[in-house]
Amino acid sequence: MPLATPPNAQPRVLVTGGSGFLGKHVLDVFARRGYQAVMAPTHADYDLSDSNQVAACIRELQPSAIVHLAAVVGGIGANRARPGEFFYQNLVMGAELMEQARLAGVQKFVAIGTICAYPKFTPVPFSEDDLWDGYPEETNAPYGLAKKMLLVQAQAYRQQYGFNAIYLLPTNLYGPGDNFHPTDAHVIPDIIRKCVDAIESGARSITLWGTGSPTREFLFARDCAEGIVAALERYDRSDPVNLGSGEEIRISELAHLIAEATGFDGQIQFDATQPDGQPRRKVDPARALAEFGWQSTTSFPDGLRATVDWYHGVRKRASSVYTPATL
User: Fold this and answer.
1) Whether pLDDT at 1 is above 80
2) What is the per-residue pLDDT across 139-180, written as a single tens digit (0 to 9) for each?
3) What pLDDT sits at residue 277?
4) CA dist 198 to 136, 201, 220, 261, 272, Å?
5) What is the 3-state secondary structure (H, E, C) of the chain?
6) For a disulfide at 154, which of 165, 225, 226, 236, Cβ 3.0-4.6 Å?
7) How many angstroms separate the CA atoms of 68 and 96, rounded?
8) What CA–CA distance (Å, rounded) separates 183 from 201?
9) Are 142 and 87 contacting, i.e. CB atoms less than 8 angstroms apart?
């Protein structure tokens, strides 16, 4: 039976990772769609890597649906420095949460995967049917494989227990509220921060990792949040589903677009001794449109401008006490 949703009912929805970048956007979408019983406990409330605390969380909050966003994430540098942590924490959190949800009779579980789960040399555009045709790109394989196990668990639980778990594969996200930490940020916030830092310090060049030749696809976080809630309301099958914009851009071109958006007119250099990551990323988003009527609506120029404007606003408000690590 499909999960009853507003305006017909008020399901109790547990959102893990609700204080994170994507989580805040998901909570905003729930609020705009009329959900009133949405719970977003923090890590201080419950440690999702501890089975007893996971069980307590579900027992005490009694959700009818769970959207699992909590994850240990970061860019290439963070994945290289902490592969064991990225694998273990993401694997354990997902496995424990889904198991305890099943035991408690939760009606629906939305598992959020990652574009990093795809094989390194997946044919472009990435189709969900190609998900198992190779090993992920090495620098983020531990993270990608840990998140990929949520798909295995969801399909196994559906087959054996009839548990309604679905699995979504968002591509690279960006937008207001992103993480601009100097060592853990993903590519768009990292380049924005470097450009703004260079402008403020008077530096005439910035250096980025890799060769600049790989391509990426970026999805505005608010659009992704809309897709997640749409899937919660209208998708109940075992097949994984991509969430993406369907647009591909080379990193070197991205860097120049960000430089223009921030007003940085210096030189952009690339350090080819550092890894590029996966050669290309672009997903086929057709299944999401066909299955639950979702597609991205924010153009990349509009989304990029909103992200840069938000970052400028945060730096201005923080004034002399600003540190990138606080964002």
Assistant:
1) no
2) 999 999 999 999 999 999 999 999 999 999 999 999 999 999
3) 87
4) 34, 5, 25, 14, 21
5) CCCCCCCCCCCCEEEECCCCHHHHHHHHHHHHCCCCCEECCCCCCCCCCCHHHHHHHHHHHCCCEEEECCCCCCCHHHHHHCHHHHHHHHHHHHHHHHHHHHHHCCCEEEEECCHHHCECCCCCCECHHHCCCCCECHHHHHHHHHHHHHHHHHHHHHHHHCCCEEEEEECEEECCCCCCCCCCCCHHHHHHHHHHHHHHHCCCEEEEECCCCCEECEEEHHHHHHHHHHHHHHCCCCCCEEECCCCCEEHHHHHHHHHHHHCCCCEEEEECCCCCCCCCCCECCHHHHHHHCCCCCCCHHHHHHHHHHHHHHHHHHHHHHCCHHHC
6) 165
7) 11
8) 19
9) yes
Omega before 7 cis (within 30°)? yes
Threshold 0.85, pTM exceeds: yes
The neighbouring-strand residues paired with 256 are: none
Banded pLDDT at 315 (limits 50, 70, 90): confident
Q: Which residue has the higher pLDDT, 325 or 246?
A: 246
- Whether 46 is a known active-site residue: answer no
Query: Smallest Cα–Cα separation from 95: which of 48, 141, 163?
Result: 48
Catalytic residue chosen out of the listed positions 35, 46, 118, 143: 143
Q: Are the CB atoms for 248 and 282 separated by under 8 Å?
A: yes
